[in-house]
UniProtKB/TrEMBL annotation:
Coiled coil: none annotated. GO terms for molecular function: amino acid transmembrane transporter activity. InterPro entries: LeuE-type (IPR001123). This is Threonine/homoserine/homoserine lactone efflux protein. PANTHER family: ARGININE EXPORTER PROTEIN ARGO, ARGININE EXPORTER PROTEIN ARGO-RELATED. The chain crosses the membrane at residues 6-29, 41-65, 71-92. It is found in: Cell membrane. One of its GO terms (cellular component) is plasma membrane. The keyword Translocase does not apply. It comes from the Bacteria. It comes from Streptomyces nymphaeiformis. Keywords: Cell membrane, Membrane, Transmembrane, Transmembrane helix. It holds the Pfam family LysE.
Length: 217
């Protein structure tokens, strides 16, 4: 396998993984709808930063340690589950508080977003934390990455290149979602709609957290 063929093959696998509905897509869509385009891109870049970290870790063998040690895996798995549940419950609580507010807020831009979310850095950190605290990302890279590193190729460099390919595909996909959402943003900006979105996204996050906590691998 040549370097070019390895990159092309990995791009196909990573591309299929990217467009599969999941936690990352839910977070980016929610950010695009309730926080706006800039915060949505910050969330996406946080997720993609986490992917790059996992790719480098897999290339140097760190994720192999995660897979070999059941204790380390369980610690990260529980931490990730708690983090997702915390995010989800927070969204649901904000939705319940917003229900008592006047309907005049429906026309306000970004009315459903709280001040604590209204910074680029917080949105980026949320995406990064979600990506890094998901041990399944590490297991995926540990299982897949070695298969796409040609014999004799520098592992660290190839790991960075392959993770960058995955990130590029993710950026294209997230950009399509974000700009698509902006086409109907005027309607989505209504506070009542954003409460529904926060409720659904919060429930999805809690569900992912429970699934991760109860997962066997």
């Amino acid at each position: 396998m040549t370097v070019s063929s390895a990159i092309a093959s990995f791009a196909v696998v990573a591309g299929m993984l990217t467009i599969m509905p999941g936690l990352d897509t839910a977070l980016v869509l929610r950010s695009a709808i309730t926080l706006g385009r800039r915060r949505a891109f910050a969330t996406a870049l946080g997720i993609l930063s986490g992917v790059l970290v996992w790719g480098v870790a897999a290339a140097v063998g760190a994720s192999a340690v995660l897979t070999a040690s059941r204790l380390l895996y369980d610690v990260l798995r529980v931490a990730g589950a708690v983090y997702l549940a915390w995010l989800g419950i927070g969204m649901i609580r904000r939705t319940l508080k917003e229900r008592g507010r006047a309907s005049a807020g429906d026309a306000a831009d970004g009315a459903g977003a709280t001040a604590s979310e209204a910074t680029w850095a917080r949105a980026w950190a949320r995406g990064l934390g979600t990506s890094l605290l998901n041990p399944k990302n590490g297991v995926f890279y540990m299982a897949m990455l070695p298969q796409f590193i040609p014999s004799g190729a520098p592992h660290l460099l190839m790991g960075v290149v392959l993770a960058a390919v995955h990130d590029l595909e993710g950026l294209v996909w997230f950009s399509a979602l974000i700009f698509g959402t902006q086409l109907v943003r005027r309607w989505l900006n209504r506070a009542s709609v954003q409460r529904v979105i926060d409720s659904v996204t919060g429930a999805v996050l809690v569900g992912f957290g429970i699934k991760l906590a109860l997962g066997d691998n």
